[in-house]
Amino acid sequence: MGHSGLLPAAFPYSSLRADAGTLSVDVKNTGARDGVEVVQFYASYMGSKVERPVKRLVGFDGVAIARGQRKTVAVPGKLKFRLAPLPRTRG
């Protein structure tokens, strides 16, 4: 029993933006094959006088990206945004 030796797709993000009520980020497939990534946007309520969750999912979208290609993923936002990247974890 063996495997094909192909590495899975990898998707680094860049250029996180909030423009005119839309959140967007560029996603590139740096892996060895085509793949699909689900991009999730989270918001936190820093300085809120009301107790709130540490972070809340405010939008997501799935995108198919061919190897070596880059796409912009955008979702409408309904909050006032101050952008700060969170560490990305996989598990």
Question: Mind explaining what this structure looks like?
Answer:
Strand 1 and strand 2 form a beta hairpin. The chain has one domain: Immunoglobulins (Immunoglobulin-like, Sandwich). The protein contains no helices and 5 strands. The chain is elongated, with a radius of gyration of 16 Å. Helices cover 0% and strands 44% of the residues. The strands form 2 sheets. Strands 1-2-5 form a 3-stranded antiparallel beta sheet, with no helix packed on it. It starts with 12 loop residues before the first strand and ends in a 15-residue tail after the last strand. It is mainly β and 91 residues long. The chain has strands at residues 13-19, 22-28, 35-43, 56-65, 70-76.
Number of helices: 0
Number of strands: 5
**Biggest β-sheet, characterized?**
3 strands, antiparallel
Order of strands across the main sheet: 1-2-5
- Give the SSE order as H and E letters: EEEEE
Q: Keywords, please?
A:
0% helix; two-stranded antiparallel sheet; three-stranded antiparallel beta sheet; 91 residues; single chain
Please provide a brief summary of the model.
The chain contains no helices and 5 strands. It is an all-beta fold and about 90 residues long.
Note the topology:
Blueprint: E1 13-19, E2 22-28, E3 35-43, E4 56-65, E5 70-76
Antiparallel strand pairs: 1-2, 2-5, 3-4
